[in-house]
Amino acid sequence: MAAPSSSSLEYAFHQQQGGSTLAALPKSWHFTSSLPADPLFPSPADSHKTPRDEIRPRQVRGALFTWVRPETQKDPELLAVSPAAMRDLGLALSEAETEDFKQMAVGNRIYGWDLESLSGPGYPWAQCYGGFQFGDWAGQLGDGRAISLFESTNPATGVRYEVQLKGAGMTPYSRFADGKAVLRSSIREFVVSEYLNAIGIPTTRALALSLLPHSRVRRETMEPGAIVVRFAQSWLRFGNFDLLRARGDRALIRQLATYVAEDVFGGWDKLRGRLDDAEKSSQSPNSQPKVRRSVPKDAIEGPEGAEENRFARLYREIVRRNALTVAKWQAYGFMNGVLNTDNTSILGLSIDFGPFAFMDNFDPAYTPNHDDHFLRYSYRNQPTIIWWNLVRLAEALGELLGAAGACDDPSFVANGLKDEAAAAPLIARAERLIDQAGEEYKAVFLAEYKRLMTARLGLLTFRDSDFDSLFSTLLDTLEALSLDFNLFFRRLSGLKLSAIATDADREAAAAQFFYSDDATHNDSAGRQRLASWLDAWRSRVVADWGTLETWGESASGGSGAVSPSREEERIAAMKAVNPNFVPRGWILDEIIRRVEKEGERDVLKRVMHLGLHPFEDSWAGREFENGEVYEGDREEEVRWTSDVPRMGRAMQCSCSS
Ligand code: AMP
Ligand code: MG
């Protein structure tokens, strides 16, 4: 384990100044010191002595990564940083103005490595992984243009992140491509990573965005090159396991699974076992899902005396995390667009942003990926696809899962199963565990989806009848009337119950939810359909908020009204979960054009500000957390939070990024 590079005193000093310098930030290289390196470059020195352009694409076996330094970049321009990311890493905001930061952000600084003595605790690296792309095994993929620099632990929070550059040059994993990233997709990744984090969806993060003025990158046209500094608690994907499984590398699968449990999840003891009955009955129906214990007692085998060994607990943790994340995507209408197993995170993070999108007019069959002809990665398929990916992961871990208590048996560890006869019960057990994990996936997904939809609709409790009478009916109505998914929730948040008290009121109120240029759906039948949903919603709001009257004002007992103070509270609660700003494709396209073609820079700061504070009613001229007045641009923010222009709805992107 590498020692932090700064003394705690030095760090404490920087903390008082509002964060650390880049140089003083504690850095480590746990990943590379725990897992095997590419045998062609066993040490950083072997890689460093090799000319950069001789580290070429090839098959790398028996390894999780290759030591490889970023390409050197001339005259980089730091376009933007995320203040939230600076804070979460433990960096002082002022650090972004230093030369050191600017050079780090494009890979012109190597950390953990002394250039004189050619030694040190670490060096940059690229990961080796494979993946199933669009359902087919694609072989070795790997970090083809991403290079990790170091891990750093924020001592104030204790959270360790791996800091990585995307677009930093070729690696052994670049295959036929160039190792570069274009400005267009870098802007998209930079904005969406920080936005997802701001609305509470697990995601990899983005620290900084730089333009490479001398880099022209060939895609469909020639485009400017860029680098995003991104970070995550782990960049491991299902694809890391897939590749080891395809190559039959049993020992490395065990080693990697152990690394994930001990290092990424913080220890085997942090991984929950199956809930026992006492725990189950103490849970409130609106909190965690119940987990069924469907294993009969006589199925419990092995020296550990348990059907479920530690690898099964690890798998279930990965299942749960991914179930939570995909539930959040569904509740917020986010689509990744390329949910291949190499883009599915072991931590359940949203990761690798290509043709992602947020839903505009609600359409469950929408896919933001222009090349996704079979709608594999469409909105409605995401939960199924993440489970499909989880089953591939289970197959990689299958032998470890199925071995139960015999997983540490020395002969099993060394050679696997002795014969076919021994395989049958192991396979049966693994299948049972996967089935149970599938049930758990559904339960966790549903509980989280219900929790979020309940909150988005401003309700305080979930009733079983809500699923059909409110959630499903709403989605059907949004689809039939071509209503905007996210604008709907925001506009609903601000709606006063007094404005929807009668049929006539409701029909009038319904008009505001249609696109203003949509005369087709916004007719009397359309408005009445929405009005009848508003009526059902209104009753549920009254039931939840009216009967809970505690303010000494007239208690309404669910019969009609909600007191003004309770109504204000309900509106505030809804606005706190229903973002006003959503980085849609058309907004990102506008920003890309303005930065790329018109030389604008401040627009990036403004979109980042809205993205980091997405729940506000307005931004320009208001004070935010640092006590300064945010100047902003009122006209622009109103435009960005209004109807999506007709030509900008349900846009699609190609994968070329
Ligand atoms: P993605 O679809 O962006 O997740 O990428 C799939 C695989 O292709 C990953 O292994 C990437 O590292 C690799 N890749 C994508 N674009 C490039 C590029 N321009 N240069 C090198 N590798 C790339
Ligand atoms: Mg990827």
Average pLDDT taken over every residue: 91
**Globular, elongated, flat, extended or rod-shaped: what is the shape?**
globular
Main sheet summary: 7 strands, antiparallel
Taking the alpha carbons of the first and last residues, their distance comes to: 36 Å
Number of helices: 21
Helix content: 40-55%
Taking all Cα atoms into account, the compactness measure Rg is: 26 Å
Structural class: alpha+beta
Bound molecules: adenosine monophosphate, magnesium ion
Uncertain spans, ≥5 residues at pLDDT below 50? Answer: 1-7, 276-305, 548-558
Q: Count up the domains.
A: 3
User: Using DSSP, what is the number of strands?
Assistant: 15
Strand content: 5-15%
Please tag this protein with its features.
657 residues; alpha+beta; 3 domains; 7-stranded antiparallel β-sheet; 11% strand; binds adenosine monophosphate; binds magnesium ion; SelO; nucleotidyltransferase; nucleotide-binding; magnesium; ATP binding
Give structural notes.
With 657 residues, the chain is of the alpha+beta class. It has 3 domains: 217 residues, no CATH class; 208 residues, no CATH class; 82 residues, no CATH class. 40% of the residues lie in helices and 11% in strands. It is built from 21 helices and 15 strands. The strands form 5 sheets. Strands 1, 3, 7, 8, 9, 10 and 11 form a 7-stranded antiparallel beta sheet that branches. A hairpin with a 3-residue loop joins strand 10 and strand 11. Helix 6 packs parallel to helix 20, helix 10 runs parallel beside helix 13 and helix 11 runs antiparallel to helix 13. The protein is globular and about 75 Å long. The relative contact order is 0.09. The N terminus is likely disordered. Magnesium ion binds next to loops.
